[in-house]
Amino acid sequence: MKCAKCGAELKVGCVYCSVCGQEAQIVSDDSVLEEELLRQLLMEEEASQEPLKQKKHGEPKKQAGQKKHEEPKPKKKGHVVLIVALILIIALLVLAATMYYVIRQRQNNSSEYQLEKAKQCVQERDYIRALEYYHRALELEKDSVSIRMDMAALFEQMEEPLKRVSMLHEVIELDPGNTGAYQMLIDYYLSQEDMDAILKLQEEASSQAVIPLFDTFQVEIPSFELEPGTYDKDIEVELKAQEGCEIYYTLNGSDPVSSGTRYQEPIRQQEQGTLSIRAVARNQYGLYSEILEGEFTVKYGKPRMPRANPDSGTFSVPTTIELFGEAGAKMYYTWDDTVPTANSMEYTKPIPVPEGNNILSVVLIDRHGMVSDILKCNYKYLP
User: Fold this and answer.
1) What predicted TM-score, i.e. pTM, was given to this entire model?
2) CA 227 vs CA 230, 251, 293, 294: distances in Å
3) d(CA 348, CA 142)
4) Segment holding 315, helix H or strand E
5) In angstroms, rounded to a whole number, what is the distance separating the alpha carbons of residues 287 and 321?
């Protein structure tokens, strides 16, 4: 320890200073240094004020032969100024660092800033950095549809179709009525000719807003021009489908999609029996309609009985008889009151009435072999 008055080192256990006789006061080395520094600063301050005092009171006249007294130069307070400057610089640096940190934190937590930077990177074709900004923005807004749409557009520019499709599916999960995302998916699947994916997309659609987007892919069921049923004559069955569609059909009950014949002309039934038709329409995308089914039965009836002119009578002069029947059918006749058949005389021109009392029997046989009732007429020719 040192003496508080003269600064001499105090021996352990001494009550008075052995140098100046001052009563010993325990002062730490640090306190002495502080006092010494303070004493030095005061001396420097007094030295700096001395020239001013001399100017104020006037300098004493120099005596002849007296040497010029050189005034001690005041010491510069450079170290004090330096300390203050360093403190200011450090404070400014701390303030700048704090402000930078705050700004960066705000930017990192601002989705608007991340999106702005992402779009700037897209313009600069720096797609990797743009994607990083988009991912950061998406972390801040986990359910954002617009950010996902922007990312889908970015994946298109990056030629990453599968990532784009995945992002669009995320969009429609969050926003089932987003027609833009649905249209992009439809266009992509069309480019890949993946109609199964389009049909699946349609099946999973839950919003009425997007249903019209699939109208192009709806195939209307074809229709019959002739109503299914039973007919007593030959029939022709025409099929109709919506414009741009083809029709495929079967007549044996099999699946028209897998084993159908392409429809090109009416389906004819020219004999007795049942025609079972199953048909589908197919559009330009290869999609099929539901199956159309119908049965057409042809059951021929007897042709109408032929007519004769005259239909009977007694004549004294030669007379001929004309017969009339259905077009396309043949008429056969006898004069001996027997039943005419296809082996009997065929009517081709008016028949002369033979002499005597005769019974004309006539039948009509159509092209299906169906035989009409027998027409019987009595003619008497007595010349």
Assistant:
1) 0.54
2) 9, 16, 11, 8
3) 94
4) strand 313-315
5) 64
* Identity at 355, one-letter amino acid code: E
* Contacting residues for 149 by C-beta, under 8 A, at least 6 apart: 171, 180, 181
List, as one string, the DSSP characters of 176-230.
Answer: TT-HHHHHHHHHHHHHTT-HHHHHHHHHH---TTTGGGGGGG-----EESS-SEE
| Tokens linked to 15 | 């009550």
Q: How far is CA 149 from the centre of its chain?
A: 10
Helix (H, G, I), strand (E, B) or coil at 300: coil
- Sequence-distant (≥ 6) Cβ neighbours of residue 334 within 8 angstroms: 340, 344, 345, 360, 361
| Helix, coil or strand: residue 82 | helix
Q: Please give the pLDDT value at position 44.
A: 63
- Closest alpha carbon to 1 in 29, 41, 22, 23: 29
- Spatial separation of the C-alpha atoms in residues 194 and 213, rounded to whole Å: 16
What phi, psi does 172 have (nearest 5°)? Answer: -75, -20
pLDDT along the chain (383 residues), means of 10: 68 66 56 54 60 50 48 61 86 82 67 93 94 94 94 95 96 96 95 92 93 92 96 94 95 94 94 94 93 95 93 94 93 95 95 94 92 96 91
Closest CA to 313 of 357, 267, 367, 283: 357
Residues 6+ apart with CB under 8 A from 69: none
pLDDT score at 65: 46
Q: What are residue 357's DSSP bridge partners?
A: 380
**Facing residues of 175 across strands?**
none
Q: Are 287 and 217 in contact (CB under 8 A)?
A: yes
